[in-house]
Amino acid sequence: MSLGRLSGFAGCIYIDGTHSGDFDVITPQASMTFTTLTGLDQDGNAVNFLVTLNIGANAIEAGQVITIPAGQKITSIVVAGGTGLAYTRV
Questions:
Q1: Bridge partner list, 43
Q2: pLDDT tens digits, 45-75
Q3: Does any domain span residue 5?
Q4: Which H or E element spans position 5?
């Protein structure tokens, strides 16, 4: 997804700690690592996006974009280090 396509989103929040909500995209502003990145699939089943997206303990660098499959939502974010923005679709 290009950053230009983010214009169709409902808005974003600054993330640097623990957050909950319904998020679809994360864009790091600085190198980010996560303790928790979980959510729900289209059937309401719990998903650990650190595992399914193969992020694990790896740092996500500024300029990279974390997206999830359509119909799924990130509902819990715990940032271990770094800062970023989390976006919600309209």
A1: none
A2: 999 999 999 999 999 999 899 999 889 999 9
A3: no
A4: none
Which residue matches tokens 């303990």?
57
Query: What's the rounded Cα separation, in Å, for the pair 25 and 23?
Result: 6
Separation of alpha carbons 18 and 48, rounded Å: 16
Number of domain units in the chain: 1
The model carries a pTM of 0.85
- Contact yes or no for 19/47 (Cβ under 8 A): no
Kindly give the pairing relationship between strand 84-89 and strand 25-28. Answer: antiparallel
H or E element that contains 68: none
Q: Is the dihedral of CA 41, 47, 51, 55 positive or negative?
A: positive
